[in-house]
Write a structure and sequence with these properties.
The chain is an alpha/beta fold. About 40% of the residues lie in helices and about 20% in strands. A seven-stranded mixed β-sheet has the order 3-2-1-4-5-7-6, with helices on both faces. Helix 3 crosses helix 4 and helix 7 packs antiparallel against helix 8. The protein starts with 11 loop residues before the first helix and ends with a strand.
Length: about 230
């Protein structure tokens, strides 16, 4: 069965297979697409919500960069992802952390298991965003902190650059790398994803308060932080 990545919407199994295929080039593409800034954004995300000694869940952990940043911030980190090839690379980076294969929509943890949760460039890929946010709230203790780092649609002077980069350059770069053709999915998935304000409202509806939004790179990337009610 052919998969139309340009639609920006894939069935869950298709999303998992896509990430299985791009696992070997995932880190290289992240560095290229962000000019290396993604590591700094992940560090800032971890520092915004992780306190020393916290039990931390990094959902949609991919190859583990955000989970490693959370550990450096003092967290006791569990990373979860539904792509085993992604997890294999995460385990090689940080074998001392706990890595679990699982689905953000059905987290295999008891309620109130974590002090903080992070998601880096992952929530736009889930089939039911509101359910995913509710699951994150369920596994957080009251007062627990959430940090979501995600690509968004900038306004103003950077909007033309964004369209050139994500609609033109990124898909081309993806096609030049083994398995990277799936990166044609990225621009369309971002276009259909809620903007920062709407995502903030969804986070609040899931049972969070004090939702704060910090924009990076002129609004191309947004960090949402919130506290569990």
């Amino acid at each position: 069965m052919s998969v139309n990545y340009e639609s920006g919407r894939l069935a869950p199994d298709a999303v998992r297979r896509m990430f299985d295929r791009i696992a070997p080039v995932y880190d290289a593409m992240n560095r290229t697409m962000t000019a290396g800034l993604d590591r700094r954004w992940r560090r800032l995300t971890a520092e915004a919500v992780v306190r020393p000694g916290n039990a931390v869940l990094d959902a949609c952990c991919g190859t583990g960069d955000l989970a490693v940043a959370a550990a450096r911030a003092g967290g006791r980190v569990t990373g979860i992802d539904f792509s085993e090839p992604m997890l294999e690379r995460a385990r090689r980076k940080a074998p001392e952390l706990e890595w679990i294969r699982g689905d953000l929509l059905e987290l295999p943890f008891d309620a109130a298991s974590f002090d903080a949760a992070t998601v880096g460039f992952g929530v736009r890929n889930v089939d039911d965003l509101q359910r995913a946010l509710s699951e994150l709230r369920r596994v957080l203790r009251p007062g627990g902190r959430l940090g979501i780092l995600e690509i968004t649609r900038p306004r103003g002077p950077l909007a033309p650059f964004y369209r050139l980069w994500f609609d033109g350059v990124v898909p081309l770069l993806g096609k030049l790398l083994p398995g990277g053709s799936a990166y044609t999915y990225l621009p369309a998935s971002v276009r259909r994803f809620p903007g920062p304000e709407e995502l903030g409202e969804m986070i609040q509806a899931a049972g969070f308060r004090d939702v704060r939004v910090r924009l990076f790179a002129g609004g191309i990337v947004a960090l949402h932080t919130a506290d569990a009610v």
